[in-house]
Amino acid sequence: MTEVPSAEAALRFTVTDDDTAAAVGSGSLPVLGTPRLLAWCEAATCAAIEPSLADGETSVGTRVQLEHLAPSPVGQAVEVTARLAYADGRLRRFSVAARNVGPDGVGGLVGSGEVTRVVVDGERFLARISDA
């Protein structure tokens, strides 16, 4: 196992009508949908890993474990953080957390989990799928 380098990112989003469970097909309520929460968590991991990538490299998500714990209504600001927890070769595992943001700062936990990404050469990756 290689030493875990420091990599983290925090992104802030505001829940819109397009982000709701009703809009993304994961329910009927006008609150943040789990698929959108997952996309925001992946965006945070991409932001965290980006500075460490060499020219031509990118990362692909390979595994997700996510608990969606609390609702976020339309208009709610949500801060999503990703922190590198484990690195081994091309594999990077991130701890992710999302919290509702209120007037007093970052507050209640909306969701948490892990997102695993693998660093790949972008051109070689795309060449593999076009040959299939």
Automatic annotation (TrEMBL):
Binding-site positions, substrate: 61, 117
InterPro entries xref list: FlK, FlK-like_dom, HotDog_dom_sf
Active site: 34, 42, 68
Binding-site positions, CoA: 61
Domain Fluoroacetyl-CoA-specific thioesterase-like: 15-122
Protein origin, superkingdom: Bacteria
Protein name: Thioesterase
Lineage per the UniProt record: Bacteria, Bacillati, Actinomycetota, Actinomycetes, Propionibacteriales
